[in-house]
Design brief:
The chain is of the alpha/beta class. The chain contains 10 helices and 4 strands; from the N terminus they run αβαβαβαβαααααα. The chain has helices at 17-27, 43-51, 68-77, 89-100, 108-119, 124-133, 138-148, 153-160, 164-178, 183-192, and strands spanning 31-34, 58-63, 81-84, 105-106. The protein has a 4-stranded parallel sheet. Helix 2 (43-51) links the parallel strand 1 (31-34) and strand 2 (58-63). The longest helix is centred in the C-terminal third of the chain and has 15 residues, at 164-178. The model has no long low-confidence stretch (mean pLDDT 85).
Length: 196
């Protein structure tokens, strides 16, 4: 599926999460496709280990399991995308390209899972998210909400009458101020605060 794509190169494969994190350290891929259930170290631990490193690769969790705990766990660990293995191959290839460009990618059923989690009522995450968002400027807050709505940088630029480089600068500041490592975590913060 990936070998025939002119703009994608498979640089390595691993049998388990520990081998995957070791290979990623030496091969330095831009995007890692991660399974959840693996021997030695599972995909959630491996994703967290990868995102704890400086300049981590982007991670797409690709699995047959869309259970709430897996979805939330993967995103909290720093995954940039979560796709089910029954996703059609062209959509997986498109997701890799999108995630490589810094955009999150979630299967529709995963989005439903996140909505269900958010609607289960307020919890301590709401207060924490509101406190984080209170540190933002008005423009940063607008960009954060747009990210939470799933808009690309180009879409945010058009909607807020900004240049794409300006949007990218705002998103970079959001990473710092919100303690996020990817756009999905910004979206979760916005959702936890009830802004989307």
């Amino acid at each position: 599926m990936l070998g025939g794509q002119p703009d994608l190169e498979v640089v390595g494969e691993a049998r388990d999460g520990r081998e995957g994190t070791t290979l990623a350290a030496s091969l330095r891929p831009h995007v890692v496709l991660m399974d959840i259930r693996m021997p030695v170290m599972d995909g959630l631990e491996a994703t967290a280990a990868l995102h704890a490193r400086p300049q981590p690769p982007r991670v797409i969790v690709l699995t047959t399991f869309d259970a709430d705990d897996y979805v939330v766990g993967a995103l909290a660990a720093g995954a940039d995308g979560f796709l089910l293995k029954d996703t059609p191959p062209p959509e997986i290839v498109a997701a890799i390209r999108r995630v490589a460009d810094g955009e999150p990618m979630l299967s529709p059923s995963v989005t439903q899972t996140l909505i269900r989690q958010v609607r289960q009522g307020s919890d301590p995450r709401t207060a924490e998210a509101e406190a984080k968002l209170a540190t933002l400027t008005e423009r940063e807050r607008e960009v954060a909400v747009a990210v939470g709505r799933g808009l690309s940088n180009a879409d945010i630029a058009a909607e807020l009458y900004l240049s794409v480089p300006t949007v990218k600068a705002h998103v970079s500041r959001l990473f710092d101020k919100l303690g996020a490592t990817n756009r999905v975590q910004i979206a979760i913060c916005v959702h936890d605060a009830g802004l989307v």
